[in-house]
Design a protein that fits this description.
By secondary structure, the protein is α+β, with helices and mostly antiparallel strands. The protein folds into 3 domains: 74 residues, no CATH class; 78 residues, no CATH class; 38 residues, no CATH class. Helices cover 50% and strands 14% of the residues. The chain is elongated. Bound molecules: zinc ion. The site of zinc ion has 7 residues, from helix 1 and helix 4.
Length: 219
């Protein structure tokens, strides 16, 4: 169980973080996920409150994956050994889609975040809006997204930033490889003061390939 001091409400940890997207909420399943349980007078009565939620099918469906995850943590088992082959394939479909969506938005210099970051809302931002559209048109992706537990959807700003860093490292390694293979190269750098009075430096590398064609890359 989790308790929010701010909202004075109780939540079920495994129902919040280990439910799949295609599991529908209802009754005592719903209230322990959102908006939180507050009926303290009936909280400990048999068959109601906490006890009622404990017997709820939705809670049981979330409890099992949570325990599996805990066992895996204790045994330090890789996720590759915990999941079925079909689930691994679905995870790969989903994660490669998310990674490529981040890459697409970065290349086109689009802001990812909105003011109301929930799929289906008007101002959810480019990232979630495009996810919503693509999942509506792609059954395989929709199926993969529905099977992803809610604690690893990779849609948070932290996950987006991590994916951007990974793409950057991959790009940088390709540039370094090309520079190392070139016959000649030089490095150019320039800096300018931004509006916060901090110097911004950009570094550019120019190299000549084996066909004597010049290439420039911004690092
Ligand atoms: Zn629960």
């Amino acid at each position: 169980m989790e308790y929010s001091v701010k909202r004075d409400a109780a939540y079920c940890f495994c129902c919040r973080w280990f439910r799949s997207g295609n599991q529908s909420l209802g009754g005592l399943g719903n209230v322990f996920v959102q908006p939180g349980y507050k009926n303290w007078q009936k909280a400990t009565q048999p068959g109601r409150g906490l006890d009622g939620h404990d017997r709820f099918a939705f809670h049981t469906a979330c409890f099992h994956p949570w325990k599996l995850w805990q066992e895996g943590q204790l045994k330090s088992k890789s996720v590759l050994h915990q999941l079925s082959h079909s689930q691994l394939e679905r995870n790969r479909v989903y994660l490669s889609y998310v990674a490529n969506l981040v890459r697409f938005l970065v290349i086109h210099e689009k802001p990812m975040r909105g003011t109301d970051e929930v799929i289906g809302r008007d101002n959810s931002g480019f990232f979630l809006a495009m996810m919503e559209r693509d999942m509506a048109n792609n059954t395989e992706l929709r199926h993969a997204a529905d099977s992803i537990p809610k604690h690893c959807t990779y849609t948070s700003p932290e996950a987006q930033n991590e994916l951007i860093s990974i793409w950057f490292e991959l790009l940088q390694s390709v540039i370094v490889k090309r520079v190392n293979e070139s016959s000649r190269y030089c490095v150019m750098a320039d800096e300018t003061r931004n509006k916060n009075n901090v110097e911004d430096m950009c570094v550019c590398v120019r190299c000549i390939d084996n066909m004597f064609v010049a290439h420039e890359y911004l690092l």
